[in-house]
Design brief:
There is one protein chain. The chain has 14 helices and 4 strands. The chain is mostly helical. The strands form 2 sheets. Strands 1-2 form a two-stranded antiparallel ribbon. The longest helix has 29 residues, at about 215-240. It is globular and about 70 Å long. The N and C termini lie far apart (about 60 Å).
């Protein structure tokens, strides 16, 4: 049974097409009751200390309001304030920059990589706490049939390289994509479970666009940050188990996440570059250059070249984003180190 194409306006009771957000006759909001309920729920959740739940309600309210309306601007302001409060209340991943020194192979390189893994766990305790608190959500995709089927198809295509290696890369990609899902959910955005594309990778479909460049950068860079964590775990396992397969997973994981830092199309690097100021962009470019010189990753050189090209061509954000800068300065040398391990 299909839904009726029209419904009565809550203001003047005339029939109005269901797609309309505002009545064309009396200019009343068509979703007035739903908006009032969402407002009450959001305010109640905020008072109870659940900003993520409140953000979900405000994001839903935004879809029921005309984008150019005063009410839309007010709801967006409240959502932005909650997002800033969430960022301020958590320990930001990337609280300190990691030196790119020591990008050499062999035992020295492995010891340096293990030190990076330890530094990751130490500096990223806020991220670790987020993962632990959202463990149920992290497993979300494993209970979704389309995701499971796409993972099995991806594994079948890739398993000729060894089932252990294919399984390791599969879960590395899954953790990367769930980083995006966790960041989206934490900010009140609806998000799909990851879908895997054989021969390419995986993706998460956005159902609502981020409001600004800083919000988009938080969501975009969450993928490589979680991917770095997965590669660090693989590296630790390679040392404990003396497993060359786990080492290869860690190295390829570094390369894959470096690839995602390319500042092109809708890749994570393009989203992470937008809120950076001019000086912040050249700081990241310098880190990329040093990492590329000391490491042995062709991918780092590609990221460096494209980052410089974008820094010269695009208009920088005048205010900048220190959080995104710190995340770049952690991701660039550590991922380059991991990508260089087995070469």
């Amino acid at each position: 049974m299909t839904a009726p194409e029209h419904r009565p306006c809550p203001g003047c009771t005339r029939d109005v097409p269901r797609a309309f957000l505002v009545c064309p006759y009396c200019h009343a909001l068509m979703h007035r009751e739903s908006l009032q309920a969402l407002t009450r729920e959001a305010e109640d959740l905020t008072a109870r200390g659940d900003p993520a739940g409140a953000l979900t309600r405000w994001r839903e309210a935004l879809t029921l309001l005309p984008p150019a309306s005063r009410q839309h601007a007010e709801v967006q302001r409240r959502a932005d304030a909650l997002t800033r409060a969430l960022d301020a209340s958590s320990t930001t991943p990337g609280a300190g920059a990691t030196s790119p020194a020591g990008l050499s192979g062999g035992k020295k390189g492995l010891a340096g990589a293990l030190a990076v893994a330890g530094l990751f766990l130490l500096k990223f305790k806020g991220l670790a706490l987020l993962v632990l608190s959202q463990g149920k959500l992290l497993l979300l995709g494993l209970f979704k049939l389309p995701t499971l089927l796409s993972m099995l198809l991806w594994f079948g295509v890739t398993s000729d390289q060894g089932w252990g290696f294919a399984l390791g890369i599969l879960f590395s990609l899954y953790i990367h994509e769930m980083g995006h899902v966790l960041a989206l959910t934490r900010r009140g955005f609806p998000a799909t479970a990851p879908m895997f594309i054989p021969g390419l990778g995986a993706l998460v479909r956005l159902q609502q666009r981020p409001a600004n460049a800083i919000e988009d950068a938080r969501i975009g860079l969450a993928g490589p940050l979680f991917g770095l964590g997965a590669a660090a775990v693989a590296l630790a396992l390679s040392y404990v188990l003396h497993s060359p397969t786990a080492l290869a997973v860690a190295s390829l994981g570094g390369s894959i996440n470096l690839f995602n830092l390319l500042p092109v199309w809708q890749l994570d690097g393009a989203r992470g570059l937008r809120p950076l100021s001019r000086s912040q962009r050249w700081t990241v470019a310098a880190a990329l250059l040093v990492s590329a010189l000391l490491g042995r990753s062709v991918m780092c050189w590609a990221v460096c070249a494209l980052f410089v090209e974008r820094a010269l061509r695009d208009t920088p954000d005048p205010d900048g984003d220190p959080v995104a800068l710190r995340q770049w300065l952690v991701l660039v040398p550590t991922l380059t180190l991991l990508a260089s391990l087995t070469r």
